[in-house]
């Protein structure tokens, strides 16, 4: 409770209530240094809706959400089921509080489950009994790493993490990815230092460094980009209101365009 976690901190930025003072203090400090963080977190959550809708309408019926975070409105399974009622979803997160809330949300829902696991240990995830129960790797699958790429520093070999699951997936499967990037390497390094010093693994990358992670996969149009520009929609479900004490940071991403959430969807040929 006295150490911030990414799931709870991220949840507070989305208007969630399941957080502690350590999480809120961490966010307050981060937004003072990088005020665009509020906007880009929420932009990433809006991207989730567009990405899952695209995948469901493309024919995907099974999803693995790696590093899912705390449940909020329009989770992956809720969006998928709007467009594919027979969708199956596995949520994965290392934070035990996510498991508690996820199990409560998904009680008596056999097509969706949540497991506690470390996304760096892909073999354990793929061999988990609940993953084997719901996911058939002989059929196309969508694997989501949304706003978790920055939690995989180079020392964790993110290329291995991302490609372990995609190597097992059949052709026609999709990888959906996003992470915080910075066009200014010095500013990105400062962000990395500040977040890491709070006990949260982090590495801010440049867009080119993110692109290098995806050898062998084909970006879906419009390719990897600032998520604001990935297939924007005039109408999509709104997010919960911004917490009152953070409203001063709304719109900050318009004033500092060097930091943003970068990603998109890639297809295994």
UniProtKB/TrEMBL annotation:
CDD domains, per database record: AdoMet_MTases (cd02440)
Keyword set, alphabetical order: Methyltransferase, Transferase
Disulfide bond keyword on record: no
Signal sequence interval, chain numbering: none
One example of a Gene Ontology biological process annotation: methylation
Transmembrane segments: none
UniProt cross-references to Pfam families, sorted A to Z: Methyltransf_19
MF (Gene Ontology): methyltransferase activity
Coiled-coil residue windows: none
Protein name: SAM-dependent methyltransferase
Organism: Actinomadura alba
Lineage: Bacteria, Bacillati, Actinomycetota, Actinomycetes, Streptosporangiales
């Amino acid at each position: 409770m006295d150490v911030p976690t990414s799931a709870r901190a991220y949840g507070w930025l989305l208007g969630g209530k399941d957080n502690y003072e350590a999480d809120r203090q961490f966010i307050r400090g981060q937004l003072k240094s990088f005020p665009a963080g509020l906007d880009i977190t929420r932009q990433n959550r809006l991207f989730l809706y567009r990405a899952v809708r695209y995948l469901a309408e493309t024919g995907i019926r099974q999803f693995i959400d790696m590093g899912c975070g705390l449940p909020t409105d329009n989770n992956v399974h809720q969006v998928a089921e709007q467009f594919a009622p027979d969708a199956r979803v596995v949520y994965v997160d290392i934070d035990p509080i996510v498991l508690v809330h996820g199990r409560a949300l998904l009680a008596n829902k056999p097509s969706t489950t949540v497991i506690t696991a470390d996304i760096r240990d892909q073999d354990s995830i793929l061999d988990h009994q609940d993953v084997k129960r719901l996911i058939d790797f002989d059929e196309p699958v969508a694997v989501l790493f949304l706003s978790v790429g920055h939690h995989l520093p180079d020392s964790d070999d993110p290329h291995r993490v991302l490609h372990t699951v995609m190597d097992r997936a059949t052709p026609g499967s999709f990888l959906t990815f996003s992470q915080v990037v910075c066009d200014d390497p010095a500013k990105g390094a400062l962000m990395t230092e500040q977040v890491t010093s709070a006990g949260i693994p982090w590495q801010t990358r440049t867009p080119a460094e993110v692109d290098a992670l995806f050898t062998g996969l084909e970006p879906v149009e419009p390719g990897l980009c600032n998520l604001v520009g990935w297939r924007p929609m005039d109408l999509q479900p709104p997010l919960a209101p911004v917490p009152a004490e953070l409203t001063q940071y709304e719109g900050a991403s318009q004033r500092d365009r060097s930091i943003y959430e970068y990603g998109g969807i890639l297809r295994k040929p």
